[in-house]
Amino acid sequence: MLAGQDAAADSAREALAALCRDYWYPLYAYCRRQGLDMHDAQDATQGFFNHLLEAGTLQRARAEQGRFRTFLLGSLRHFLANERRHQNAAKRGGGALVSFDEMAAEQRFSSEPADAATPESLFERSWAFALIERVFHRLEAEYVAAEKAALFTALRPLLTAESARPGHEALAAGLGMSTAAVGTAVFRMRRRYGELMRYEIAQTVTSPAEVEEEIAHLIRVVARG
Fold it and tell me: What is the spatial distance between Cα 2 and Cα 196, in angstroms, rounded to a whole number?
């Protein structure tokens, strides 16, 4: 767990930086939805990371009670308020500690449909989809490492929506496997997906008891669409 552990400061800093790299887009999108233009949102997001990774801020992050996404959003809101007051936003490329593809971020933001929901609820939705994407990438990497990339590609649709999914019989014919073997492979993939999801969420909450609560919350967020 990130919070509540007695890990060395350097190790905790690296873990925090890794989480920021994985979940920077919801923060960037939040800045855009607060009315910042593309460049100012880039500046604000990068400046926030630089601020967050300072030693004093890191200690507060480790001591924070609650979920990491909640801490991040609250910290970003406070940071933006201070930046507006002091007019000293960090400039792009000035000592950046967390890198991200700025143009890809804006293209992604521009492609999202307009939504009347609050920036906070949209932040949660972006966070949930960033988490799902990260878990898919980790799962795919494991299958590729095991030389089972084709199996992953074939079975991946069975991890998502029920509609328009290929049947086990069709998959078995395409993969040269028995229907029973496909069923077993699907079960194992879903089980591993769940394990990876719980592991990823465990990095963002303060206690094991919060993992299932966070999963249930994020499922509701995704279901609201």
Answer: 16
Would you tell me how many other CB atoms lie within 10 Å of the CB of residue 170? 13
3 neighbors 208 (Cβ within 8 angstroms): no
- Does residue 168 register a pLDDT over 90? no
Instruction: Tell me the pTM.
Output: 0.73
Cα 123 to Cα 29: distance, rounded to the nearest angstrom: 7
pLDDT at 193: 95
What span, in angstroms and rounded, lies between the C-alpha atoms of 68 and 220? Answer: 18
The whole-angstrom separation of Cα 46 and Cα 91 is 8
Single-letter amino acid, residue 64: E
- Say if CB 172 and CB 178 are below 8 A apart: yes
Rama region for 98: left / alpha / beta (φ>0; ψ in -120 to 50; rest): beta
Q: Which residues touch 48 (CB under 8 Å, ≥6 apart)?
A: 27, 75, 76, 79, 80
Shortest CA distance to 137 belongs to which of 1, 22, 17? 22
d(CA 44, CA 83): 8
